[in-house]
Each structure stands twice: as structure tokens, then as C-alpha cells.
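Appendix C: a fully annotated inverse folding record. The material below is reproduced so that readers can follow the format used throughout the book. The structure is listed first as C-alpha cells, followed by the designed sequence.
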């Protein structure tokens, strides 16, 4: 079929109201109309949907659009009906949400030739009655949206997508257009093979979204940081992604308590609630949606101004897809991810029951995410490199690493050493194995290959495996090394790398960022990790507060962290509290602590504020959720009744670890509790005394990690946490 450019432009204006096509849209549409298989790689906001909607409206027959999400179908159908006046039958969807009468209406419109676009889920496509129905109509083409779902290397793998090709053959052949906003070269070839369209012409737009700002922050005081960020961006639309449904519910509730209009969205909500919450977000009745990754595929809201990841995603493809929902109108889009290696370990745990090959794929995708989060390279450069695109500029000027660059160092010798190691070994190995050899880490795998006897083992006593891993990652981005995705991430030297080895030249590299894990939940950040706090407080006041704490600790014979932790002091240096009531708004300061230790601190702050004529921020206080405080009340009452902690956890449907988190928050805020009855049941008295003495005599901070290092391997993290709770309760409250 031939369609003139004039006719296409006319229809574009008539249906969609646009005067001109965006990027390669017209070329894609012409290619499809001429009956050819077409593969479209276009970032979110690039105008993918138009590439199949417009040809469907001008070609004879009905286009079958295979799409993974019911909510998305409803959106798209509503949109098309809005473009074409008085013809609701022009677009339909066929899925499990329809009743018998609605299904009958769809069938009649299809058989009469009224319907130009029919959206189906892959599961609906496999039903025998639907196959028989579609055999009776003329099909203009098949559009496979979110095509990355076909590949297990893609971030939303859906096994049903694998069945599309045989079913299409059964219904009747027609051209196929596959579309996705994210696909690495590996995923791209998977899609083409699986849909039997290796002959398809590939239209690939640049994955660079200039208007998006990328930042990765350490996971410290996350909830407080999020509330602060949203209040600073008041009235703007945003999405927050969390790993679990539970966290989605909790965070949405916390935001509402703090005056932010937010709703949850996850697969555990019934369809009507999900649709209603999504509509309220689209209609701007709420500002923020807190969601699992079930939300947002194809959500056509152009003015999402921020996307926050409470948990780092399972893959960089997922991350790119989700951040891509910001700034689709070309306006500002802030993408903030909170990163802690603990989240990565949680994701690894989820994979343990999966088949081995799937675990290998999952681990490799996670490693790429870790590399992105911890790297000091330009974030844009790293992302585009992942999608097989070379970003030429040195500094994008719109990510945290480019705006606040870290010190660089000469990397020529280090890269040469890595290349020397790889070329000296017969087999290829993964990046972490190579880094462990160079860093001198003789673990069991290294020993099994006898690699601890290599000349380059522990080649530089001042550089650990973490340092070498950063070198390897940057050499991959510089294309001196190659990571073979097909072979689970084995690293080889490229021709460019071999040339570099023969004639080395200057290469400036940066060290990875150090992310120290917070052992505690948001409410009680251990002072051991405080140096990684976002800071931003009054440095002069902070130093003075530490002086007061120091003299008080000497006078009372208490470790400084028992009085107030570093994050508590940092909060004081930001919020300038001058009454005991205000002091309680600083994190880790409850009524008990404020009364017991607060007087000297507020006197100092009061004087300092007056002398320096400081304007105090009185409005920023994070309110806590009522049922969280109900949990606290229940826990305190249960401890008074000497109930075992595991029974308390079961009664409240909590993990035992969550009960420990609550207990830490309780004692840190100044309430005294006695858990001796429980400790006696599960920990030897000698151990109790050893751990208690460590915190009393030796500890510089209340960090569990430091305690575990000092005490040695005979003590578990659980034991140390329980005794720390006992210690802080007895001495601090």
C-alpha cells in the first residue's frame, strides 16, 4: 500500500493535532504501511504509540496491539476515542476485565469492520475463542508493544510473550512492528529472533534524554530526605518506586500524614482501586504515586517532574524505563535513586529459588546496576554505553557526578596491569574474579584455580579489589575491555585494548564512590555512618554541639553516642531547636532524651542563633504515621508482660528484624525498656557481658559493623543488636 506524505501529514493533523512528525516517525510509518516488518527502539516520550496508531487509522483492516498491562490499554483506547470524534467503536481492548455484554460489543464492532485498533494482552491472545474470532477479520498488522518483555534479559520478562509468534502464524500472517523504550543489543536480537523478524528494519533513536537529571544518594534518612525533596518541589507531579507492596503502603501513608497528596499503586490492590488511583494521578487530584514497578508502563503523563527510587531496581533497563517517565514533555525531570548494598543483597535473596541460568542472568543485571550506582563516571555516559550507544561528551552537566566531580588520577599503569592479567590467563573470568586476584583476596574460588600463586596476585598492597573493580568498569566503558553478556559477563581485551597495551597513553580515571550501609532503619541511623550523611548543616554549630556532648560524656561517664548520635546533632545544626519541644523533632530524640540531656544543647543553640542572627526553619518536621506509633505502644506493653520478641513479631505480622528496628527507635528516642528476660533465654551470660563491656569501654560509635569487627566471628549480628538495645536503654534513658 502506498500513502503520500501529504495524506499522512493531513491525518496527523486531523487525528492528533500535530503539524509535523517527531524524529523518524514518518519513515517508520511509511515502512510499516508498505507491508514491512519494523523494529522501533525509542526512549520513553519519543512518540512510539503514534508509530502504530496512525497507520492503523489509515490502513484497511484492524491492527492487533499486544500490550502487557490492562491499565495501559484502557488509557490508550480512551486516548484514541478522544482523537476520533463520535466513533467509540474505532478502538477496543479485549481482556479479563470485560463482562459478557462488553465482549459481545467488541465482537460486533470487529466483525462489522468498525474497529481499527484492538488491544489484547498476550494471555488473551492465546485463548481459542479469541484466535477463532481474529481469523474472521482482516488484520492490517500486529504491534508488539513493550517488546522487551519477550527476552529473559529484559527487565519485565513475560513468558506469555514467547507464544506470540506461533499464534500470529495461526491467526494469519501480517507485518509486525515491535516497539520498546529499552533494549540492550542482547535484548534486541532476542526480540527479533523470537518474533521471527530478523529481516526487520531497525529504527533506533538516541537513548539520551538531555532534560533528565540523574543522581544517586546513600540510603540514609531516606523517608525524611524524600519528604524534604517533595516539599521543595511543591505542586509538582512525581512517582516513587519501592520494591515491596508493604513499603508502598507505608510510604504513601507517611507522605499523606506530612501533608503531601499521595496514593499507592501495586498489584495487590483490586483493579478498580488501581484504575482510580491512576486516574487521580493523571487528573492531578494527587501529586505523587508511590508504586511497585507494576505502575507506569506507557502512562502518558507528560509533566512528571521527578522519579524517586526508594529501592534501586533489579536492572539498568528497569531503571532507565522508570526514570524515563519523568519530563516526557521535554521539561525538567529529576531522577533520584537511593542506594544501599543491602537492597542488592535482598534482590539476590529473591533469586535463590529460580533456575540456575535465570539466577546467573539476574546476578549479572544486578552487577551492572551496582556499577552504575557506585561509579563516579558521568551517569549519562554509563547508561548510554549500556544500551550500546557512545556518548562523546566528557561532562553532561546534568548528573551528580558531572556537577560535583570527584578527584581524578592517572590510570594508564592500572589499566595496563588489568590487560596484562587477562592476556596471561588461558580462560576468561568475570570482573569481580579479576579484581579479587589483583586485590590479593584469596577466597575459595581464587584458590580453586590456584590464582593466589599468580605474579599479579595482590600486585599493589595499597589497592583492594574494590579499587580494581572500578578500573575494570571504566576500561569497559572506554572500550579497552569487553564484557560478554552471552557468556554471563566474562571479560576480554578488545583490539583497542591490545593497541593501548602496546602503546599506553594517559587515561584519567576516578575512584568509585563509597556507600556505607546504614544498619538501622530511617529513624535510627547509627553514628558510625554519619560521616556519609547528606550534611548541609551549620558546620560551626555542629562542632560546638560535639564539644558539649564530649564534656557531658566525660562528666556522666557515658560514651558520646549514648547521649545523642551524630545524625541527631546534624539535625540540630540544620533545624536550630531552641526549646525541648522542638528538640524532639530532631531524629533519634524522644521525650526521655530531650529531658535527660537536652538542656545544655538548647541553651547553646539559643545563644548561637541570637548572636549570629539566624533565621530558623520552624516548619520542617516529619510527622510519623499513627499505626507505627501504635506498633510501638503494643511492643512496649508486650515487653512489660515479658512476651518473647518472636511472638510480638507474629502478633503484629512483622519480621523479627522489624521488631528490632522498632526497639532501636524506641530506646533512641529516650524510652526505657527492659528486655533482659528475652536476652537470658537466647544469649550466654559471658557473651552478654563481653558485648556490653565493648559498648561501654571501647566503642567510639554505636555502629554494629564496628562492633562485629572488634568482637570477632563468635558473635552474631542479632546478639550484638540486642545487647546494644539493652545498653542504650540502661545508660541513655
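Designed amino acids, in order:
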Amino acid at each position: 500500500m502506498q500513502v503520500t506524505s501529504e495524506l499522512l501529514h493531513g491525518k496527523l493533523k486531523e487525528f492528533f493535532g500535530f503539524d509535523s512528525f517527531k524524529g523518524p516517525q514518518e519513515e517508520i510509518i511509511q515502512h510499516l504501511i508498505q507491508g514491512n516488518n519494523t523494529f522501533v527502539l525509542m526512549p520513553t516520550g519519543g512518540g512510539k504509540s503514534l508509530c502504530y496508531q496512525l497507520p492503523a487509522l489509515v490502513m484497511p483492516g484492524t491492527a492487533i496491539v499486544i500490550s502487557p498491562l490492562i491499565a495501559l490499554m484502557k488509557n490508550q483506547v480512551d486516548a484514541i476515542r478522544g482523537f476520533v470524534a463520535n466513533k467509540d467503536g474505532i478502538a477496543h481492548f479485549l481482556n479479563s476485565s470485560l463482562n459478557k455484554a462488553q465482549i459481545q460489543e467488541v465482537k460486533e464492532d470487529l466483525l462489522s469492520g468498525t474497529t481499527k485498533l484492538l488491544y489484547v494482552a498476550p494471555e488473551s491472545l492465546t485463548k481459542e475463542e479469541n484466535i477463532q474470532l481474529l481469523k474472521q477479520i482482516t488484520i492490517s498488522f500486529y504491534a508488539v508493544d513493550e517488546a522487551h518483555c519477550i527476552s529473559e534479559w529484559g527487565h519485565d520478562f513475560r513468558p506469555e510473550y514467547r507464544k506470540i509468534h506461533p499464534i500470529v502464524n495461526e491467526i494469519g500472517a501480517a507485518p509486525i512492528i515491535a516497539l520498546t523504550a529499552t533494549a540492550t543489543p542482547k535484548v534486541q536480537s532476542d526480540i527479533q529472533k523470537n518474533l521471527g523478524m530478523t529481516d526487520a528494519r531497525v529504527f533506533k533513536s538516541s537513548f539520551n534524554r538531555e532534560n533528565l537529571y540523574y543522581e544517586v544518594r546513600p540510603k540514609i534518612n531516606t523517608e525524611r530526605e524524600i519528604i524534604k525533596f517533595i516539599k521543595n518541589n511543591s505542586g509538582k507531579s512525581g512517582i516513587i518506586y519501592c520494591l515491596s507492596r508493604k513499603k508502598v503502603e507505608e510510604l504513601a501513608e507517611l507522605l499523606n500524614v506530612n501533608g503531601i497528596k499521595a496514593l499507592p499503586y501495586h498489584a495487590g490492590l483490586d483493579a478498580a482501586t488501581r484504575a482510580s488511583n491512576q486516574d487521580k494521578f493523571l487528573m492531578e487530584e494527587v501529586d505523587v504515586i508511590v508504586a511497585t514497578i507494576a505502575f507506569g508502563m506507557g502512562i502518558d503523563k507528560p509533566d512528571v517532574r521527578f522519579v524517586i527510587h526508594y529501592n534501586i531496581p533489579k536492572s539498568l533497563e528497569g531503571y532507565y524505563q522508570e526514570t524515563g517517565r519523568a519530563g516526557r514533555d521535554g521539561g525538567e525531570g529529576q531522577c533520584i535513586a537511593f542506594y544501599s548494598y543491602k537492597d542488592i543483597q535482598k534482590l539476590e535473596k529473591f533469586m535463590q529459588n529460580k533456575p540456575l541460568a535465570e539466577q546467573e542472568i539476574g546476578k549479572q543485571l544486578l552487577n551492572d546496576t551496582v556499577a552504575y550506582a557506585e561509579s563516579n563516571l558521568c551517569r549519562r555516559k554509563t547508561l548510554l554505553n549500556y544500551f550500546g550507544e557512545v556518548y562523546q561528551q566528557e561532562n553532561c552537566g546534568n548528573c551528580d557526578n558531572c556537577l560535583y566531580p570527584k578527584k581524578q588520577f592517572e590510570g594508564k599503569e592500572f589499566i595496563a596491569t588489568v590487560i596484562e592479567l587477562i592476556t596471561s590467563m588461558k580462560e576468561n573470568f568475570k570482573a569481580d574474579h579479576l579484581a579479587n586476584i589483583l586485590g590479593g583476596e584469596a577466597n575459595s574460588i581464587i584458590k580453586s584455580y590456584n590464582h593466589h600463586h599468580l605474579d599479579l596476585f595482590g600486585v599493589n598492597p595499597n589497592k583492594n579489589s574494590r579499587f580494581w573493580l572500578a578500573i575494570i568498569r571504566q576500561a569497559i566503558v572506554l572500550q579497552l575491555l569487553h564484557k560478554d553478556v552471552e557468556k554471563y559477563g566474562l571479560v576480554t581485551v578488545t583490539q583497542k585494548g591490545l593497541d593501548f597495551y602496546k602503546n599506553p597513553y594517559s587515561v584519567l580515571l576516578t575512584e568509585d564512590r563509597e556507600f556505607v550501609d546504614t544498619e538501622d532503619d530511617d529513624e535510627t541511623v547509627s553514628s558510625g555512618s554519619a560521616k556519609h550523611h547528606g550534611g548541609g548543616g551549620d558546620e560551626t554549630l555542629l562542632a560546638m554541639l560535639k564539644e558539649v556532648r564530649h564534656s557531658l560524656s566525660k562528666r556522666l561517664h557515658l560514651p558520646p553516642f549514648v547521649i545523642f548520635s551524630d545524625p541527631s546533632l546534624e539535625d540540630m545544626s540544620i533545624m536550630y531547636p531552641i526549646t525541648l519541644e522542638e528538640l524532639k523533632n530532631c531524629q533519634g530524640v524522644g521525650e526521655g532524651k530531650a529531658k535527660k540531656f537536652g538542656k545544655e544543647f538548647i541553651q547553646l543553640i539559643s545563644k548561637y542563633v541570637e548572636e549570629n542572627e539566624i533565621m530558623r526553619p520552624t516548619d520542617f518536621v516529619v510527622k510519623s504515621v499513627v499505626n507505627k506509633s501504635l506498633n510501638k505502644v503494643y511492643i512496649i506493653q508486650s515487653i512489660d508482660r515479658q512476651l518473647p520478641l518472636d511472638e510480638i513479631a507474629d502478633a503484629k505480622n512483622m519480621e523479627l528484624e522489624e521488631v528490632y528496628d522498632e526497639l532501636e527507635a524506641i530506646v533512641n528516642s529516650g524510652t526505657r525498656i527492659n528486655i533482659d528476660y528475652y536476652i537470658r533465654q537466647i544469649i550466654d551470660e559471658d557473651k552478654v557481658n563481653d558485648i556490653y563491656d565493648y559498648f561501654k569501654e571501647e566503642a567510639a560509635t554505636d555502629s554494629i559493623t564496628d562492633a562485629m569487627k572488634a568482637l570477632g566471628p563468635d558473635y552474631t549480628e542479632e546478639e550484638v543488636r540486642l545487647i546494644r538495645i539493652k545498653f542504650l536503654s540502661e545508660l541513655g534513658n
